[in-house]
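Weekly puzzle thread! Below is a chain. First person to post its structure in token form gets bragging rights.
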Amino acid sequence: MKALPLESCKECLNRLTSPYPTSDIFERPEYWWCKHCSLINVPDKNEEDEKRRLSLMENSPFVLRKIAGYVKWNDRLGIPSWCPLDNI
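Winning reply:
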């Protein structure tokens, strides 16, 4: 049972977003990152996403973990199985 009644990371205060690079000027996709304090530093499997994650962490006191890449404004994503709030 979840500690918080969240259906998506979109509602979570631990979600951090950053722009997803795209050549289409009409699209505004985002990366979604989790910045929960109990996260373990898990490198991303995608080399470009890992570079982005590390560059964001340089200016942040948080360890970030990618929730999803290329998230559009109307996407409905669930909560990942590794979510630290699941175990609270």
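Puzzle host: Confirmed. Bonus trivia for everyone else. DSSP finds one helix and three strands in the chain.
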